[in-house]
């Protein structure tokens, strides 16, 4: 399927993003295959699931190697790899923390909202990650627009309101 799709759209893809696009297409089909395997046979998915996910991770690494490491020095490539690793770690933690707090009402096992909190079940399901990602993207786009319009940063607003209370 990935070969068919790549062949269909190959003339529409700019050369600068050719490899990244191919990797994205392959990673998407691998993810679909993983979900189908999970739906069809839990036992086989338990045995192979981790390895299937590694294919997607390898696609991401290959994409970054093509985009940056193949065009820069060893030192810059190492710094880029460290930065990408830290960036992915922060991104996954940002998604996971929000999902845990809203989905379970806890943070690192400590209750955040008390005993009357009704967990948001969607947050513990796979789709919850998309909602949280959408929320983060909305926040960052809003902050970017404020900056471009010359409005004060969010932290400035928070601190100015806190100082007015005191």
Give a short summary of the structure.
With 166 residues, this protein is mainly α. Helices cover 74% and strands 2% of the residues.
Characterise this structure.
74% of the residues lie in helices and 2% in strands. It has 166 residues and is an all-alpha fold. The protein has two domains: 67 residues; 94 residues, no CATH class. The protein has a two-stranded antiparallel sheet. Helix 4 crosses helix 5. The model has no long low-confidence stretch (mean pLDDT 82).
Shape: extended
Proportion in β-strands: under 5%
Low-confidence stretches: none
The strands making up the biggest β-sheet line up spatially as: 1-2
N-end to C-end Cα span: 63 Å
* Biggest sheet features: 2 strands, antiparallel
Give the SSE order as H and E letters.
HHHHEEHH
What's the alpha carbon Rg, rounded to whole Å? 21 Å
- Mean pLDDT value: 82
Compute the number of structural domains. 2
Number of helices: 6
Structural class by helix and strand composition? mainly alpha
Helix content: over 70%
Number of strands: 2
């Amino acid at each position: 399927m990935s070969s068919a799709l790549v062949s269909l759209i190959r003339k529409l893809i700019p050369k600068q993003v050719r490899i990244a696009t191919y990797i994205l297409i392959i990673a998407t089909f691998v993810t679909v295959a993983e979900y189908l395997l999970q739906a069809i046979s839990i036992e086989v998915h338990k045995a192979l699931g981790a390895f299937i996910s590694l294919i997607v991770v390898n696609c991401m690494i290959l994409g970054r190697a093509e985009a940056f490491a193949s065009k820069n020095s060893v030192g810059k490539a190492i710094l880029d790899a460290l930065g990408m690793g830290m960036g992915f770690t922060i991104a996954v933690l940002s998604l996971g923390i929000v999902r845990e707090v809203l989905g379970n009402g806890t943070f690192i096992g400590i209750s955040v909202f008390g005993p009357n909190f009704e967990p948001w079940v969607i947050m513990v399901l796979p789709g919850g990650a998309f909602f949280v990602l959408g929320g983060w993207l909305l926040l960052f786009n809003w902050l970017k627009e404020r900056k471009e319009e010359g409005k004060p940063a969010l932290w400035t607003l928070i601190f100015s309101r806190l100082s007015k209370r005191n």
